[in-house]
């Protein structure tokens, strides 16, 4: 099924040790930013934990000693200074995108979010047309904080709406009221944000077709220019998973999720949105999330914050998870990276295929080996790939193909 929630995993993978100073191989630094360069900033704080959430986030009671919201921006800026030393004389030509995610970034004071952005600009330089996004929960922003963020240079905001149905929000343990997300979207536009996204989750137990239709209608009426819609994934260790194991709630249905996806495509398409990634729709090319496109097309990015992942020149690494451990390492002048891996050519090819197949721009057929091209031909014959694009040498999913995207990828990577 299309649409999975993407964030730092609950359990970090194993990997090779990282030098104390975080240094990278010369081969990784040689062409940094050649395909674009972004900065991700993870803010791991939440006022409360949503029942479905497996992200690397912490409520106040879970933080313990050695970390706090008040000192968090200083820790991020310390990692930024380390990053500047690591890249040294091989800095990116510019920072094309910045994405501040969480958690709930807007639990930090707006002035701290402004300081972090200013630090990135001072260290590497923001491109004149840089896309700068922050995520936010609808109840964590208001007209004044939004104006402060916009004045600081943030150009895009992504609001976690999830649903317009009170019952669905209750199952997900969301704190905001049913209408708050769309109200916040309107406030963001009034504050001067060029681009506003609303996130939806579909397939929550108890959600009806009418509930989801109402959510889509509210999104359209809010006048946003970007929508993300993800199928609910039940992660082990979450409160939602525990409730399902106890039989309090049914598990999500793949058939229902497929119906919801088709409903999203129909409603958003009628409202002038076009899909550009399986789970993302935009009103125009300018409204597409350029930061996520960096991920999906194999560009470089530096991830700041606990649990954040980075990728530079085929080397991927991830930071320690807990904010206290993260702050302690930086206070000692050490890299907060826990482990890393050097991607092989085969691994890079596999990821390229997995990600670019999900894009409306498609995957060139000529990057596939003979077995992969045979798989593409079978997918086309089954109606999963667009005939016109295929004739132009591209693998582009049809609507039915989007519903079966994972199966198509498996066929292209025998």
From TrEMBL:
Positions of the UniProt region annotated as Disordered: 1-23
Principal location listed in the UniProt entry: cytoplasm
Highest taxon, organism lineage: Bacteria
TM regions (residue ranges): none
Residue ranges constituting the Radical SAM core domain according to the UniProt record: 31-274
Family of the protein in this entry: Belongs to the anaerobic coproporphyrinogen-III oxidase family. HemW subfamily.
Species annotation: Micromonospora tulbaghiae
Full protein name: Heme chaperone HemW
Location in the cell: Cytoplasm
SUPFAM superfamilies cross-referenced by the UniProt entry: Radical SAM enzymes
CDD domains, per database record: Radical_SAM (cd01335)
Record function comment: Probably acts as a heme chaperone, transferring heme to an unknown acceptor. Binds one molecule of heme per monomer, possibly covalently. Binds 1 [4Fe-4S] cluster. The cluster is coordinated with 3 cysteines and an exchangeable S-adenosyl-L-methionine.
Keywords: 4Fe-4S, Chaperone, Cytoplasm, Heme, Iron, Iron-sulfur, Metal-binding, S-adenosyl-L-methionine
């Amino acid at each position: 099924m299309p649409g999975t929630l993407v964030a730092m995993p609950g359990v970090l993978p194993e990997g090779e040790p990282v030098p104390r100073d975080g240094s990278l191989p010369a081969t990784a630094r040689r062409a940094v930013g050649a395909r674009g360069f972004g900065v991700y900033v993870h803010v791991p704080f939440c006022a409360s934990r949503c029942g479905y959430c497996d992200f690397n986030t912490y409520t106040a009671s879970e933080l313990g000693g050695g970390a706090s919201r008040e000192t968090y921006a200083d820790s991020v800026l310390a990692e930024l200074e380390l990053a500047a030393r690591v890249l040294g004389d091989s800095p990116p030509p510019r920072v094309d995108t910045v994405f501040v995610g969480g958690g709930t970034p807007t639990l930090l004071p707006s002035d701290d979010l402004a300081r972090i952005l200013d630090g990135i600009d001072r260290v590497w330089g923001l491109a004149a047309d840089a896309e700068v996004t922050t995520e936010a929960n609808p109840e964590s922003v208001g007209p004044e904080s939004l104006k402060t963020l916009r004045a600081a240079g943030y150009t895009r905001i992504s609001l976690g709406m999830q649903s317009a149905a009170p019952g669905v929000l209750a199952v997900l343990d969301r704190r905001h009221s049913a209408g708050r997300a769309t109200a916040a979207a309107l406030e963001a536009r009034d504050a001067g944000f060029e681009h506003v996204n609303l996130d939806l989750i579909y397939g929550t137990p108890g959600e009806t077709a009418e509930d989801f239709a109402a959510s889509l209608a509210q999104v359209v009426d809010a006048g946003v220019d970007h929508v993300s819609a993800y199928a609910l994934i039940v992660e082990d260790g979450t409160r939602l998973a525990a409730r399902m194991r106890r039989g309090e709630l049914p598990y999500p249905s793949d058939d229902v999720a497929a119906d919801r996806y088709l409903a999203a495509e129909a409603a958003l398409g009628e409202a002038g949105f076009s899909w550009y990634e399986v789970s993302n729709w935009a009103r125009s090319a300018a409204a597409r999330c350029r930061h996520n496109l960096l991920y999906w097309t194999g560009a470089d990015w530096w991830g700041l914050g606990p649990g954040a992942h980075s990728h530079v020149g085929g080397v991927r690494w991830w930071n320690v998870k807990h904010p206290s451990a993260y702050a302690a390492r930086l206070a000692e002048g050490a890299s907060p990276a826990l482990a890393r891996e050097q991607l092989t050519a085969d691994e890079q090819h596999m990821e390229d295929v997995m990600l670019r197949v999900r894009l409306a721009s498609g995957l060139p057929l000529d990057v596939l080996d003979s077995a992969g091209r045979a798989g593409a031909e079978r997918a086309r014959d089954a109606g999963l790939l667009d005939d016109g694009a295929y004739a132009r040498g591209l693998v582009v999913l049809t609507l039915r193909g989007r519903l079966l995207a994972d199966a198509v990828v498996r066929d292209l990577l025998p």
